[in-house]
Specification:
Elements: H1 2-21, E1 22-28, E2 35-37, E3 43-51, E4 55-66, E5 71-77, E6 88-91, E7 100-105, E8 111-112, E9 115-123, E10 129-133, E11 139-143, E12 159-160, E13 165-166, E14 168-175, E15 180-185, E16 190-192, E17 200-208, E18 217-220, E19 231-234, E20 237-240, E21 253-261, E22 264-265, E23 269-276, H2 302-325
Parallel strand pairs: 16-23
Antiparallel strand pairs: 1-14, 2-10, 3-9, 3-11, 4-7, 4-8, 4-10, 4-14, 5-6, 5-9, 10-13, 11-12, 15-17, 17-20, 18-21, 19-20, 21-22, 21-23
Length: about 325
């Protein structure tokens, strides 16, 4: 039971993430219009609507003032002659309407491209009442005995009822296009002017806004590119590529980098590389193996004085033995 409860929580979280990313759009008339209408039983009535962006159809809605009979809603594309309703795109199941907005999910959920479409309603009863206006709206209609399954193709010579529109619309969902961003660490790198080729300057990290794994690559770009080939890329790192000897202490060297996966590019980032002057090398050791040579005057030269002291001790230890060996008092 504990495992089952955990699985349900995870599934709910995943659905929440998807819902957070999804947005909804509508096409059709979402306002409650003011003119009364009825007696359209067994008529397949279509009104033109425009979809402004690619989206996935989810449901349709129709406003009813007096309910009776059954109702089916649907969408046709505009591939008929001269842009009239053409092929069926999606429809709801037949349902019993109620007063007010009637929203019903479509039985299929295809993704529609932006463009012109026709929203249709098919009532089974003349007593079903609803609202309309007769000042705008491109519409067509023809007689069709009520059926729960709408025709795959709209009639080729329907009656023109323009200008009229009803309170009828479709709701679609669209997922926000994920964006790609790029960062670097550190953001203000420093490197010595003696740095050899291959020295890492900064590391790059690209990330998708929806959490997807980045599988693309990095490249230099305008406005600064790779600063005359002084730098290059090694996987996700910017590294030294040329001599920086003449740049120590000068203003930062700017380079520009971008990440790309497929056709999507990130924002470019400017990397200001500060080149510092390296400290001077230590002086070479002096001749004679005297590390203090030139540091102190000769009379204070510890190394030399130690040598004299060492020689004096040596002489004091050897001279008595020499006098005894020679028979001197």
């Amino acid at each position: 039971m504990l495992i089952l409860r955990f699985m349900v929580v995870v599934a709910s979280a995943s659905l929440f993430d998807i819902a957070a990313q999804a947005q909804t759009v509508t096409m059709g008339e979402t306002a409650v219009l003011s003119d009364a209408d009825s007696k359209n039983g067994n008529l397949l009535v279509a009104q033109q609507a425009t979809l402004t962006q690619s989206a996935t159809i989810r449901s349709m809605a129709f406003y009813v003032t007096s309910a009776d009979g059954q109702l089916v809603l649907g969408i046709y594309d505009a591939t008929g002659p001269n842009g009239i309703p053409g092929h069926l795109v999606a429809q709801t199941a037949a349902f019993t309407p109620a007063t007010g907005w009637n929203t019903s999910s479509t039985t299929t959920t295809p993704t529609l491209t932006a463009g012109k479409y026709w929203l249709v309603y098919l009532p089974s009863s003349d007593s079903l009442s609803f609202v309309k206006e007769n000042t705008t709206g491109n519409c067509r209609l023809y007689s069709l005995t009520f059926t729960a399954t709408l025709p795959q193709t709209y009639k080729r010579n329907p009656r023109n009822c323009t200008p009229t529109m009803w309170s009828l619309y479709a709701t679609l969902s669209t997922t926000a296009t994920p964006t790609l961003s790029l960062t670097d660490t550190p953001v203000n790198p420093t490197v010595m002017d003696s740095a050899p080729p291959g020295t890492q300057v900064t590391s790059l990290a690209a990330a998708w806004s929806d959490g997807s794994t980045f599988t693309g690559g990095y490249s230099f770009t305008d406005p600064y590119n790779n600063d005359n080939n002084l730098f290059t890329l090694n996987n996700n790192a910017v590294v030294v590529n040329g001599s920086l000897a003449q740049l120590g202490g000068k203003p930062p060297q700017n380079i520009s980098v971008v990440a790309q996966q497929g056709s999507t590019k990130s924002n470019f980032i400017n990397v200001p590389v500060a080149v510092t002057t390296s400290p001077p090398p230590p002086p070479p050791p002096p001749p004679g193996n005297d590390p203090t040579s030139g540091v102190l005057p000769p009379y204070n030269d510890a190394y030399a004085n130690w040598g004299e002291c060492r020689d004096g001790i040596s002489r004091r230890h050897t001279e008595p033995h020499d006098s005894l060996r020679l028979g001197q008092p």
